[in-house]
Design a protein that fits this description.
The chain is an alpha/beta fold. It has a single domain (6-105), classed as Glutaredoxin. The protein has 4 helices and 5 strands; from the N terminus they run E-H-E-H-E-H-E-E-H. A 5-stranded mixed β-sheet has the order 1-3-2-4-5, covered by helices on one side. Helix 2 links the parallel strand 2 (21-27) and strand 3.
């Protein structure tokens, strides 16, 4: 069951990442590169279906998780497996790179 992109908050972040593979796109509405990354993340959510949770976190509104993981540049994409950060990217990433990362962790 494809679920699309999940919006993450500081409140549900830890619960979301605790099981399985979860990609989190840390972004902000004013960030040009983030706006380029957005549609890529949305396509990835469609193509990955239920193999991984694809999510976005607005760092202007939700700052705790971004601070906890040291996000200082956006877009930053982190891929978690069973609660542990497995991979981190800073800057715009292609759908192919992100999909390969998720498949590697499966």
């Amino acid at each position: 069951m494809a679920q699309g992109v999940v919006n993450v908050t500081d409140e549900n972040f830890d619960k979301l990442i605790e099981k399985g593979i979860v990609l989190v796109d840390f972004w902000a509405p004013w960030c040009g590169p983030c706006r380029m990354q957005g549609p890529i993340v949305e396509r990835l959510a469609e193509s990955m279906g239920d193999k991984a949770v694809i999510s976005k976190m607005n760092v202007d509104e939700q700052q705790q998780a971004a601070q906890k993981y040291g996000v200082s540049s956006i877009p930053t994409i982190m891929v978690f497996k069973d609660g542990e950060m497995a991979k981190q990217y800073v800057g715009v990433q292609s759908e192919d790179v992100l999909q390969a990362t998720i498949e590697e962790l499966m």
